[in-house]
Specification:
By secondary structure, the protein is an alpha/beta fold. It has two domains: 213 residues, Medium-chain alcohol dehydrogenases, catalytic domain (Quinone Oxidoreductase, Chain A, domain 1, Alpha-Beta Complex), CATH 3.90.180.10; 185 residues, NAD(P)-binding Rossmann-like Domain (Rossmann fold, 3-Layer(aba) Sandwich). The chain has 15 helices and 15 strands. Strand 14, helix 15 and strand 15 form a beta-alpha-beta unit. Helix 5 packs across helix 6, helix 5 crosses helix 14 and helix 8 packs parallel to helix 12. The mean pLDDT is 89.
Length: 405
């Protein structure tokens, strides 16, 4: 079968690999009909999430048809159409039972203290082969898969594999109450769903921050007021739009790939901050520095802590910041002093996908949200590598990859 395989930083290849087989009693094998490229996948390719093992199949978003099941997968039949949750969870440990599926004690082969396990990630997450392939093995399939009703298309279901649940998780982490003013940093796919989710939860206003006009336009279509940080200072504008108070809640949907302004008048960044950002990159992405040529080609962010700084400075006193943008474990830069002086609450984590997918499936099935509207490009699998480059160059906001040969 064909699959997108990681070899090194900047080196991914479309290759023929062996088809997966049932290994454990709770496994399923799914023939993927659709997969997608997510911003998190770029962390592997860029080296901003270290520890990738050569030979790992990439991807953690997929929809497909069940081909085979282990003897303990008793809620699915061969032929069922399913969406696969990005994070892997057993469903029976104390964390899963409490809804913290991303902190499952049993899914990560590295042990219960290792944290989240997900498809197509580095060794620390288990090195579980991912979903950008024609077929995939799904561990703990009785929990990790959700049936897709006939009223929901593949395109819609694909959004519920990761990006819609993650955006909703961000709004949930932020603890949004009706009437709250919310800032969302980053208007990529997850940011768009954070905007939609905040409004579903009753937010009175959503202020969306980005620098790509197509993304800002999509944010306006989704109901947000927009701020282009290349044209105006993000923090000053948020303060101005909120009467000098700031937002009640802030959602970081960017993570380590943040960039600082490069155009006047918003380029007012001190030489000291520039040096800080360079030190951050050296600290959080050491593998990246040994692959300078590839790093330039795959365009990593140049200001890892930029959004964290903006969020802390722009949220109101006593406010809450939800962090769903990806940061590696080595990230240690955070304006904790300012956050403490403002009595801020910081909530962060990896999405508990299985907690949200069934509920979001009902919302989409009822027609309340049309998640497929954020799709900007579709590519056949023979163009998967070009699709990665297009996504890395920000020429597409989210890419659905057709896996039919």
């Amino acid at each position: 079968m064909k699959a997108v395989v990681y070899h090194d930083i900047g080196d991914i290849r479309l290759e023929n690999v062996p088809e997966p087989k049932i290994q454990d009693s709770n496994d399923a094998v799914v023939r993927l009909t659709s997969s997608a490229i997510c911003g998190t996948d770029l962390h592997m390719v860029r080296g901003t999430m270290p520890g990738m093992e050569p030979g790992t199949i990439l991807g953690h978003e997929g929809v497909g048809i069940v081909e085979d099941t282990g003897r303990n997968v008793r809620n699915f039949d061969v032929g069922d159409r399913v969406v696969i949750g990005s994070t892997i969870a057993c469903g029976y440990c104390s964390y899963c039972r409490a809804g913290y599926f991303s902190q499952c004690d049993n899914a990560n082969p590295n042990g219960p203290q290792a944290g989240t396990s997900f498809f197509g990630g580095p060794k620390a997450t288990g090195s579980i082969d991912g979903l950008q392939a024609e077929m995939a093995r799904v561990p703990f399939a009785n929990v990790g898969m959700v049936k897709v009703p006939d009223s929901v298309t593949d395109e819609q279901a694909l959004m519920m594999s990761d990006i819609f649940p993650t955006g909703y998780f961000g709004a949930d982490l932020a603890h949004i109450h009706p009437g709250h003013t919310v800032s969302v940093f980053g208007c990529g796919p997850v940011g768009q769903f954070a905007i939609i989710s905040a409004l579903l939860m009753g937010a009175g206003r959503v202020l969306a921050v980005d620098c790509i006009e197509s993304r800002l336009q999509k944010a306006r279509e989704n109901g947000a007021e927009t701020i282009n940080f290349e044209e105006e200072d993000a923090v000053d504008t948020i303060q101005d739009l909120t009467g000098g108070i700031g937002t009640d809640r802030a959602i970081d949907a960017v993570g380590i790939d943040a960039i600082h302004p490069h155009s006047p008048p918003a380029v007012a960044i001190s030489e000291r901050q520039q040096q800080l950002f360079e030190e951050e990159l050296e600290d959080v992405a050491p593998e990246l520095l040994s692959h300078r040529e590839q790093a330039e080609r795959w365009h990593p962010g140049d200001a890892p802590s930029q959004v964290l700084q903006w969020a802390v400075h722009s949220v109101a006193k006593g406010g809450t910041i939800a962090v769903i943008g990806v940061y590696p474990e080595s990230m240690r830069f955070f304006p904790i002093g300012k956050a403490m002086m403002k009595n801020l609450t910081i909530r962060a984590g990896n999405c508990n996908h299985r907690k949200y997918i069934p509920m979001l499936m009902q919302i989409v099935s009822a027609g309340s949200v049309q998640p497929e509207r954020i799709i900007t490009q579709q590519q056949p699998i023979v163009s998967a590598i070009d699709a990665y480059r297009m996504f890395a160059d920000k020429k597409a906001g989210w890419l659905k990859v057709e896996l039919r040969p």
